[in-house]
Amino acid sequence: MIEKNSKEQLATFAGGCFWCMVKPFDELPGIISVLSGYTGGHTEHPTYEEVGTETTGHLEAVQITYQEDIFPYQRLLDIYWQQINPVDDAGQFMDRGYSYRTAIFVHSEEQRGQAEASRQALQASRRFKGRIVTEILPAGPFYPAEEVHQHYYKTHPFDYKMYRKSSGRDDFAEKHWNTKEDLRRLRERLTDLQYEVTKNRGDEPPYQNEYWDNDREGIYVDVVDGTPLFSSRDKFDSRTGWPGFTKPIAEGLITKEADLRNGQVLTALSSRLSHSHLGHLFYDGPEAEKLHYRVKSASLRFIPREDLKRSGLERYLNLFD
What we know:
By secondary structure, the protein is an alpha+beta fold. The chain has two domains: about 10-175, Peptide methionine sulphoxide reductase MsrA (Peptide Methionine Sulfoxide Reductase, Chain A); about 185-320, Peptide methionine sulfoxide reductase (Metal Binding Protein, Guanine Nucleotide Exchange Factor, Chain A, Beta Complex), CATH 2.170.150.20. The protein has eight helices and 17 strands. The chain has helices spanning about 50, 75-80, 110-125, 150-155, 155-165, 170-175, 180-190, 190-200; strands at about 10-15, 30-40, 60-65, 90, 95, 100-105, 135-140, 140-145, 220, 230, 235, 245, 255-260, 265-270, 275-280, 290-295, 300-305. A six-stranded mixed beta sheet has the order 7-6-1-3-2-8, covered by helices on one side. Helix 2 packs parallel to helix 3 (about 110-125). It is elongated and about 65 Å long.
């Protein structure tokens, strides 16, 4: 078993084409690096062409260096399962062959236990028809892929988007991870307004929402999955009737995309891990960068500073030193 050190650990996942397996993990808080490469085979220092012949025994994989206390292994597993078809043992999506099979390569017995429990839970959920065939294997030598394959989504953005779209990976994920049952359960947990805002980009009235004038110290988390998103230290009076922030706790937790509804050109904000709508980004903030994250109260849950420890968020207490 490989261990980086007590603070930085390794996680290794095979999920088909490694071009598509970097971005889901990259630039999240606690993620040090995401490296594309080859592992699980019987040859040393294989090339992309050699692995593609299906004679080396290697799988395309990504190896993640991460900080467990900031981004736990369980959350990595949650992301991983949503990237793959775990009942396909002959490849992934349009990429066929042994080198495109799925596997979790574990670096410790603790990781093995979490991975096995996660796989069992996924099987029991009946989210997929058939048996989960993703193997859980001991991690061995990992050989980094050629430079052209590293962070392909950044270096070849157009090719990456075209390839990913044509692969069917995103359509598969939407079908299996945004089901009617998922939405029903979410409706049971949220108020009508919270559901309308987070899932349908609904509106909430200014000055008549929970946090527009909240001045207590604490953390604002995603109301859907509890991800810490904003700190009270970065909150300001935007004079709009909605909470305003100059920045998120970590940029990697926020997704920005064009919003062309209602004849306006706006930048919509979403929580990256839950895909929940948060609000919009404007450029009239009080800091030098002029950033103004206008966020709807219904998309957030506030945890006061004095409750952070009991909520398992004590690592954020240093924001208030």
